[in-house]
Amino acid sequence: MTTRAQSKVTLIGQLRRTTTIAGIVATALLLLGSVGPRAWGQKTGSGKVTLIVTNVAMGSSGYGGSNCDSNTYSGQCLSGACACYVSGIVPVKVIVSVAGKPTKSAVAAAELFLTVDTGSTTGAPGCSPMYGVMQGLNKKLVEVMAIDIVGTLCPQKSGGAYAISGGWGIDFAAGLSASGPASGVLNGANNLKLTLTGVGK
């Protein structure tokens, strides 16, 4: 499992060449650094935003005392029997589309925390509730944005993979707002693919 320190070393060079998830999200709907946060609702109207995490290795552990447990929104385990999945620092592709302007994309840094309530699984194999947080980081790897994710983790027919479906919304980020559907896959090797799409301002 990649450690936090290793993740920082791997991404620090890349971060110096890219915008932060808040800077990106703060300009074109919460994202791209040429328009400014207010341009969203006041001058450009609402815009479409997509955040994509691809093939990210998720470390897994028990829930009690984990980073999932200590985090605000992912800190939900109603049954008392939950699993925690943590990404370390990973790249997130951010795509923003505003009416009348070219579509823009950039790479930002974030950490993911996903709590899966296995004790509340519906039947066998069944689906499990999931509560997650994506923390957007700036170039100094300080949290500047939080995105809450809620949904279900359901087993696919083969391969030991689980399908993720649900929704997301921005918890806090300098006057920005956005929400929409979430979808993805957590495979048998705990590699995560996650796509958040929606509308923001």
Explain what you see.
It is a single chain. The chain is mainly beta and 201 residues long. The chain is built from four helices and nine strands. The chain has helices at residues 4-15, 21-25, 39-44, 67-70; strands at 47-57, 59-62, 83-98, 104-116, 128-137, 143-155, 162-172, 178-186, 191-200. Strands 1-3-4-5-6-7-8-9 form an eight-stranded antiparallel barrel. Strand 8 (178-186) and strand 9 form a beta hairpin.
Mean pLDDT: 78
Fraction of helical residues: 10-25%
The biggest beta sheet, please? Answer: 8 strands, antiparallel, barrel
Structural class, by secondary structure, is mainly beta
The order of strands across the largest sheet is 1-3-4-5-6-7-8-9
Instruction: State the shape.
Output: globular
- Alpha-carbon distance between the termini? 37 Å
How would you briefly describe this protein structure?
This protein is 13% helix and 48% strand.
How do the strands and helices of this protein lay out in sequence?
Elements: H1 4-15, H2 21-25, H3 39-44, E1 47-57, E2 59-62, H4 67-70, E3 83-98, E4 104-116, E5 128-137, E6 143-155, E7 162-172, E8 178-186, E9 191-200
Antiparallel strand pairs: 1-3, 1-9, 2-3, 3-4, 4-5, 5-6, 6-7, 7-8, 8-9
Descriptive key words:
mainly beta; single chain; 201 residues; 48% strand; eight-stranded antiparallel barrel; 4 helices; globular
